[in-house]
Design a protein that fits this description.
The chain has 157 residues and is of the alpha/beta class. The chain has six helices and four strands. A four-stranded parallel sheet has the order 3-2-1-4, with helices on one face.
Length: 157
């Protein structure tokens, strides 16, 4: 069951004042790009939804010592930029979890458009109630959401 902080956070990110879904808005942007797959550099301004953007993701990957076959949980995956970068650059298998169903839908769309569906997957969920077994991942990355769970970081895998 989702706690009050999780519910408030989800409500904040699911706001849509313009009446158009986030997926529709991102699809419009993607349609303006050339045909075929897009890559991390093309999407970095959109999907690296955290401080320092793609550069922070690169530094995080180096610190984590990632290599091909590493299984990664992207905690608070947002639009999925870091997870797709890790998958495309290091060959990691990444599962992204985010409170916002619209963010998850966009992350799935972008995974399809980048051709990374085989390495990344996304699901809506609460990081304080994950459906994964203990030690189910080699690495947990958290580029953007630690402030939302600052009182509960010890309970993350």
């Amino acid at each position: 069951m989702m706690n009050e902080l999780s519910q408030l956070t989800r409500q904040h990110y699911e706001k849509n004042e313009a009446g158009t879904s986030l997926v529709a808005k991102v699809s419009t942007v993607l349609d303006s790009l050339s045909e075929g797959a897009v890559d991390s550099l093309q999407l970095a301004g959109l999907d690296q939804f955290h401080v320092m953007g793609l550069e922070a993701t690169k530094q995080l990957a180096q610190i984590a010592g990632l290599e091909r076959g590493t299984t990664v949980l992207d905690a608070g995956s947002g639009l999925g930029g870091p997870s797709r970068y890790l998958a495309s650059t290091y060959g990691c298998r990444v599962v992204g979890v985010d409170l916002s169903s619209s963010f998850v839908a966009v992350a799935q769309l972008l995974a399809q458009r980048t051709g990374l569906n085989a390495l990344v997957s996304y699901q809506t969920g609460d990081l304080l109630a994950l459906p994964f077994p203990d030690r189910g991942f080699d690495v947990v990355v958290d580029p953007a959401c630690s402030d939302e769970y600052s009182g509960s970081r010890a309970s993350l895998p």
